Each structure stands twice: as structure tokens, then as C-alpha cells.
Amino acid sequence: MTATANEVPLNFYRPNYYIQTPNMRSPEYVQMSTAAAITLGLVEGKMFRTSCTHCLNLLVTYPEGCRANCSYCGLARHREESRDYADRNFIRVDWPTARYDEVIERVKAGADQGGFERMCISMITHPNSDDDTFELLEKWVKEVPTIPVSILSNPTTLKREDVQRLHDMGAEIFTVALDAVTPEIFENTRGKTVESPHTWEKYWQVLDWAAEIFGPEKFGAHLICGMGETEFEILEICQRIKDMGGHNHMFAFFPEQGSMMEDWPAVPQDQWRRVQLARFLIDYAGGNLADMRFNEEGQVVDFGVADEVLEELINTGKPFQTSGCPGKEDDISACNRPYGDSGVSDIRSFPFALNAKDVSVVKRQIAGEELITLDDDDL
Q1: What region does 369 belong to: left with phi over 0, alpha with psi -120 to 50, or beta?
Q2: Which of 272, 183, 260, 177 is CA-nearest to residue 225?
Q3: Inter-CA distances, 150 with 10, 28, 60, 220, 278, Å
Q4: Is the distance from CB of 85 to CB of 97 less than 8 angstroms?
């Protein structure tokens, strides 16, 4: 059983209702991932093999929606004719909406249970997004000072003083959703080619500002694997971000239904696993792109470490868990985004620690054996 872009398997969650957003806007209201809504008790349901998400992913929201037109995104402007903004899925799942004050009160009421280790405010391309992000951040730092905040920024609308202001107001980590890892792919999926306002140069400028203002290990980039780049090209960007002092948050490309790339295939399993492994080596295990070897197709053929070291690392399963801003452990993401880039029958980013069976499957995938992660009998 493999879910399509706007379907979530029944064993992932079973919500009885959704809170929609036709007349709701930030900063009074925020959208959140379904996993976050379930964890907060705003939506009834359960998640396969994980009890909660440790990052409260919030998204600014407006009835008129995002003004960008990224070709792979569920929030893209071009979808206005096919779906109301309130009903659009984003990274595979629905994002229900609630009053921000209620979200804060629910977090505070459950703070002693140790559920959330981080909160993230995600910006969109909208005239009010910057100011509303400042307001949301200010209120959170005042009301819930014990849970650190990450900012998933919109570089297109930000000035250097805005990045500085977010830092000074108490944001701990600043990230940029670069997504596309070559100038050509960026332009063809996020730039003028698709009538979208983003530019490769501005995104890197904001990353440079973040490195200067937030400092080492306090900034990073989102990268999507499988949009036409080679393994070398995406890992070259990973190494560049690491050399700047940042960290890399990796996503497997999944075709969002209704997006311009809805017919683009999901990233092949073997490609994804090799990139996950190499990214973890670069970010957390002392690996370096210069020590790795690639074939003529840009595929990793040597990870640049001893076989026994690589085997030990694979057996931990950590490289194949969701990558994102850290929680209590630096190399384990608090932002586990359950099933944000795949269904449960073909798990790409594991939102939980892998067991021996999971690791065995991953090894077969690295070797190029096409298979699903789980048999239907296991679901």
C-alpha cells in the first residue's frame, strides 16, 4: 500500500475532523502539521510506530495564500483554480488551523510531559509574513521560554536587519528552504521560469547572513533529493553548508498531487539511501566530500571511510531518520515530520529509531534492490 500525494494511509492517522482556514489569518491563527495537531490533541488520531512529533511545526496562514509558485509545492499559487488554499496539503499531509493562543495554552499544559523539544515557525511568500513571524516569535519566547524556536525563513522578503532581529528576539536556529541544489534546477522550479519570485542568489545571501548572525550549528538549509540533480551535486551543497558551519535537512522528493511536478517520479530508493548516508557522514561523523568517490553518473561508489566504520554507522540506523533541527540529541532531529515525504509502506525518512528489520531493508535498498519498506501484513 503506497499513498498518493494527497492521501494519508488509514493507519497513519484517523482524524474525526479538520480545522480549516477559509477566513483565518496569522498572527491570530496558525496552521500546523497533522502530526503536531494530533500531538496537541486538536485532531484525533494516531501515527504509525510513533506516539508524537517532538517539533511543533507551525505555518503562517492567510486566505489568499502563498504568492510564490514553486513547481513542486502544495501551497503554490497556481493551485488557486483547483483547490481553496484552506484545503491544500503541504508535504503530503493536511495542515489544520487553530488559534495561536490555544496552541500555546495546550503546549504549556503539557510541558511537564516532555512532548515538544522545539517549535518552528515557517514563513511563506506573503506581504504580512515577516511582521507576523516577529509577533508569533515574540509571544512564544514570552509564554514558552523553555522550548527553543527555529525559523524556516522566506529569504525573498528578508533584509539582513530582519535576520538580526529574529536572532535578537530569541530565535535559536535559522533555516533556509533552498530545496533545489543547482542554479538551473532552482530557476526552473522556483524562479521566473515558473513565474515565481525566488532567486538562487538571494537565498545564498540570506544563508551567508544567517551564518554570520546565528553562528555555527545554529543555521541550516532544507534540500530536496530527487529533482533532477546528481548525488554529487546535492552532496556538494551539503559539504558547502557544513563548511559554512551549518547543517543540512534532507527531504526525499515526493510528487504533490496538483503541483506542476505531480508526474515527476519519487526519488529512487537507492539514490535516496546513499545520499542520506553521505549527508550524515558529512554533518555528524567527520566525513568529507573530498574523500568520497563518484561514478560517471554522479553516484556515490565510495563513502570515504573504512568499511567497518560504515557498517557500524548503518547499523545504528541514525542516518536514515528524519533530518532537521536537533532536539535533546544533536544528531537526532526533534523535527521528525512523520510521513512527510512518503507513505508508511515505503518509509523514506524514518520518524522513529530503526529496528534490526528496518536496517536490513535499508541495506538492501542501498544495494539497489527495489522493495517496499513494510509488507501489508505488518501495517
Answers
A1: beta
A2: 272
A3: 31, 19, 14, 10, 25
A4: no
29-266: what fold? Answer: TIM Barrel (3.20.20)
DSSP 60-114: ---TT------TT-TT-GGGGGTS-GGG--BTTB---EEEHHHHHHHHHHTGGGT
What is the SS3 assignment for 121? strand
Q: How far is the C-alpha of 129 from the C-alpha of 61, rounded, in Å?
A: 8
Is the peptide bond between 127 and the residue preceding it cis, with omega within 30 degrees of 0? no
State how far the alpha carbon of 356 is from the alpha carbons of 147, 220, 269, 353, in Å.
33, 31, 18, 10
Look up cell 501495517; give the residue. Answer: 379
Over residues 227-231, mean pLDDT: 98
Which helix (H) or strand (E) element contains residue 208?
helix 200-214
Quickly state the pLDDT bin for 145 (edges 50, 70, 90): very high
Q: What is the DSSP letter of 266?
A: P
Global pTM reads: 0.89
* Rounded distance between C-alpha atoms, residue 136 and residue 60, angstroms: 9
Query: Rounded to an integer, what distance in angstroms lies between the CA atom of residue 346 and that of residue 371?
Result: 8
Grade residue 322 by pLDDT with cuts at 50, 70 and 90.
very high
Tens of pLDDT, residue by residue over 237-291, are 999 999 999 999 999 999 888 889 999 999 999 999 999 999 999 999 999 999 9
Residue 251, H or E segment: strand 247-252
- Domain coordinates in residue numbering, the chain: 29-266
| Main-chain dihedrals φ then ψ at residue 247, nearest 5 degrees | -135, 160
Q: Which helix (H) or strand (E) holds 118?
A: strand 118-122
